[in-house]
Amino acid sequence: MKQKIKEYSIQLFDQKGFKSTSIQDIVESIGVTKGTFYYYYTSKEQLLMDIHLHFIDEVLNEQEEVINDSEKSFSDKLFEVIYLSLLDIKKQGASAKVFYREMRHLSPESLTEIKAKRDLYRFNIEKLLNEGIKNGDLRSDFDVPIVSFAILGVMNWSYEWYNPEGTKKALEIAKTFQEMILKGINLK
């Protein structure tokens, strides 16, 4: 039941927004009582935090698996990290939207935990870029943190416009992003 509450809530938060969705809306969509909701969650904010943690933990695990694969080249790792971000939007579209759009409704304590995980995601990209510099795949004269934020900007904003059913497929978009990024920081 807890998973069902989370799934229905994600859809409602995506459609109506966190603030406009009441606990009553959630329980009515599932056909249960508020008591059922409160058995699993103490508040709507705790539910939102659970949604955020599930999303960020999953994308972090995927990212770290790629980045820590010693068999893959820098270029392959960069492509896969970008590609995974698009696949996550395809697989978890509403969760991605809720994650990026509704974060402002988390308590300061919850936000601190989520921001630490988001920072780890960014630091992993910095680690990847530093690996590319060390291996000679990238120039060494660019600001790694700024380029990491640029890559995140490209990836994180995709949830707003990427349509998995559209004419451009995730693979195509990831290749375009990778080419755009590498032509800006690749060896001359």
Structure commentary:
There is one protein chain. This protein is mostly helical and 188 residues long. It has helices at residues 2-16, 23-30, 34-40, 44-67, 74-101, 108-134, 144-156, 158-161, 170-185. Helix 6 crosses helix 7 (144-156). The mean pLDDT is 90.
Q: Rg to the nearest angstrom?
A: 19 Å
Question: Looking at CATH, which topology of the largest domain would you report?
Answer: Tetracycline Repressor, domain 2
Unreliable spans are: none
Shape verdict: elongated
Report the CATH C-level class of the largest domain. Mainly Alpha
Structural class: mainly alpha
Figure out the total of helices.
9
Number of strands: 0
Q: Return the string of H and E elements.
A: HHHHHHHHH
CATH architecture field of the largest domain: Orthogonal Bundle
Average the pLDDT over all residues and give the rounded result.
90
What does the main sheet amount to? none
CATH level-four homologous superfamily name of the largest domain: Tetracycline Repressor, domain 2
Assembly context of the chains: single chain
Q: Can you tell me the number of structural domains?
A: 2
Helix content: over 70%
Strand content: under 5%
The end-to-end distance, rounded to whole angstroms, is 56 Å
Which secondary structure elements does this structure contain, and how are they paired or packed?
Elements: H1 2-16, H2 23-30, H3 34-40, H4 44-67, H5 74-101, H6 108-134, H7 144-156, H8 158-161, H9 170-185
Structure keywords:
elongated; Tetracycline Repressor, domain 2; 2 domains; 188 residues; mainly alpha
